[in-house]
């Protein structure tokens, strides 16, 4: 008998290790069943260079008897030096594997940190900007709007949040990239299981573990423990000193009374919100209710009304410039099903706002709900830092964010409105979480 959850072999009907029901079905058959619902070319292995993703790649490749599976390595630019060495070895040892690297070459980590502050435990914007977002772009390039199956090296014991995941997850807000069905073959494995597998199967692994690190990811991650920081000061002295100097300068900028203590004690890791940051002003949705028209609001903008903002209304319906009043430069949004006008956009002048737009809703059952979603798009326009979260939320691959701006392709958009739905994107924009000021 086998436990279908933690792969433990036992003669009992209830697994003595995780207390779940056992089955005569061996673990490899479980992986094969999950994979059987997808074309082989739509099966992906998420590869980070750490021990968990290494084991997952080996387990799944053997279970499916396919050495040519797609592997995607998310190069955050913040990896351990040994990770890059290991990736080279892995590719040489797996010549048949399709190996893609996801890289955000439009953003510089330190420049983003200067703008919105360094990542913290509860505000790891770096994961979306430098890992999930670039991986989404690779997947969109390979699969367009097709659903794929991705095998991840996620384990229950890693965090409280991950302990609540399912072993196979599909179409929920917990799935970071919505075009994925996520499977976690080693979800119930403990550290000892990982190491026993690596050593017993003679699988090569990242040399960072031989240096004493117990986890391998971004070397400056706020989730790293004191031991990892100590080791980095030894093996990555120049990087560690540069990072500490930056953190101290940041602490001074936001008004911490004892910057060195704030940094060295690890208090910076618990930072929440955008207190002390100029950028924090951008996430505040400022508006006045229009006194002349019902269901109309005048929203403050950080820059002039333009086509980029108009394009952000694609999820709500069809954009019609012809139906708007020309003298007012009005643009109308039509309901995607009925072609009835539901939103009016109009550049406007409001006392106290340097730039503004009047947005009126009409012919809808709930004006408040629609205005709230509209507010989310205003926030994105004002505060977007190109974190790429919106790209990951869009299952259709319609959203593209670059130095040229925020673009939603009307030909690809399926009007699912996930990009303006609270459960998929809290506050409509990741910057709401990272820059909202705390009292």
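-> sequence recovered:
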């Amino acid at each position: 008998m086998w436990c279908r959850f933690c792969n433990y072999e036992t003669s009992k009907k209830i697994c003595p290790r995780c207390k779940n029901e056992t089955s005569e079905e061996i673990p490899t058959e479980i992986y094969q069943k999950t994979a059987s619902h997808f074309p082989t070319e739509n099966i992906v292995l998420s590869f980070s260079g750490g021990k968990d993703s290494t084991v997952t790649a080996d387990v799944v490749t053997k279970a499916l008897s396919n050495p040519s599976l797609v592997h995607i390595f998310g190069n955050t630019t913040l990896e351990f030096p040994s990770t890059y060495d290991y990736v080279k070895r892995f590719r040489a040892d797996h010549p048949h594997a399709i190996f893609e690297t996801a890289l955000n070459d439009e953003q510089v980590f330190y420049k983003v940190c200067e703008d919105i502050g360094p990542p913290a435990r509860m505000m790891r914007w770096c994961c979306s900007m430098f890992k999930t977002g670039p991986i989404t772009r690779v997947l969109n390039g390979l699969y367009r709007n097709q659903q794929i199956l991705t095998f991840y090296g996620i384990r229950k014991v890693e965090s409280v949040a991950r302990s609540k995941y399912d072993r196979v997850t599909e179409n929920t807000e917990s799935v970071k990239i919505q075009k994925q069905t996520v499977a976690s073959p080693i979800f119930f494995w403990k550290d000892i299981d990982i190491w026993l597998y690596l050593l017993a199967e003679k699988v090569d692994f990242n040399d960072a573990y031989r240096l004493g690190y117990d986890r391998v990811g971004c070397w400056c991650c706020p989730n790293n423990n004191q031991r990892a920081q100590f080791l980095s000061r030894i093996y990555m002295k120049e990087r560690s000193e540069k990072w500490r100097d930056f953190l101290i300068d940041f602490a001074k900028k936001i008004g911490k009374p004892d910057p060195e203590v704030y940094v060295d004690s690890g208090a910076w890791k618990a930072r929440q919100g955008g207190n002390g940051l100029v950028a924090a002003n951008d996430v505040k949705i400022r508006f006045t209710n229009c006194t002349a028209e019902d269901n109309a609001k005048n929203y403050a903008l950080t820059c002039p009304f333009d086509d980029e903002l108009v394009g952000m209304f694609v999820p709500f319906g069809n954009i019609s410039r012809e139906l708007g009043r020309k003298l007012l430069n009005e643009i109308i949004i039509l309901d995607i099903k009925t072609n009835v006008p539901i939103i009016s956009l109009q550049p406007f002048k409001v006392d106290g706002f340097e730039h503004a737009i009047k947005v009126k809703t009409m012919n809808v059952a709930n004006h408040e709900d629609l205005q709230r979603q509209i507010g989310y798009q205003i926030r994105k326009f004002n505060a977007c830092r190109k974190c790429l979260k919106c790209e990951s939320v869009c299952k259709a691959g319609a959203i593209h964010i670059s130095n040229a701006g925020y673009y939603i392709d009307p030909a690809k958009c399926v009007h699912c409105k996930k990009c303006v739905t609270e459960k998929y994107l809290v506050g409509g924009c990741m910057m709401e979480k990272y820059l909202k000021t705390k009292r």
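The chain has a mean pLDDT of 91.
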